[in-house]
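Query form — protein Phosphoribosylglycinamide formyltransferase

QUESTION: What is the three-dimensional structure of this chain?
INPUT:
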Amino acid sequence: KRILVLISGNGSNLQALLDQAAAGRLGGEVVAVISNKADAYGLERARAAGVATEVLPGRDFADRDSFDAALRQRIDGYTPDLVVLAGFMRILTPALVRHYEGRMLNIHPSLLPKYQGLNTHQRAIDAGDDEHGCSVHFVTEELDGGPVILQARVPVFADDDATTVAERVHVQEHAIYPLAVRWFCDGRLAMKGGQAWLDNQ
Ligand code: GRF
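ANSWER: The structure tokens for Phosphoribosylglycinamide formyltransferase are given below.
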């Protein structure tokens, strides 16, 4: 299967996918990485793995619709089976999301439906939660609201700050994101009737 990854930053989740692909455990190949930030470290990770990269800066476009039209054209040029959002920090238009519905995944650093949006780690601490985590979900028009595929939990300790919790969550992200991608590549995972569905093949 052909996997295309969208990033904006560090790309540690991208690295987890590249590592699993190199080990033959992803069920697919990362064919390209597109970033909206030219200085995203994840672009270096992609280059080091011999993966094609492209940069599409938001400021080059007058509005969201024209950015997303250009993005869609770039993505579809690689004919991916799956589009993976891995720290891609732009909100996508409903038209673009609909175009990839059922074949676009995101990972969000909270136990959805809790803490959609930004600053999830600090919000979990401020709320006094004793557990937190991350969720892989299909992308739908509702921001961070698509059907959840897989979640991992981590404890929150009294002496934690947002950085220590984020590190703990990241370890889990790197474990569960490649797993969900593999399920999709193996044809076991689909979105049906607005729900995520894992088949027992
Ligand atoms: C992760 O915490 C992910 O859950 C969120 O953005 C962050 C990306 O981190 N969507 P990285 O760029 O993969 O290191």
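ADDITIONAL NOTE: Residues 1-100 form a domain with the Rossmann fold fold (CATH 3.40.50.170).
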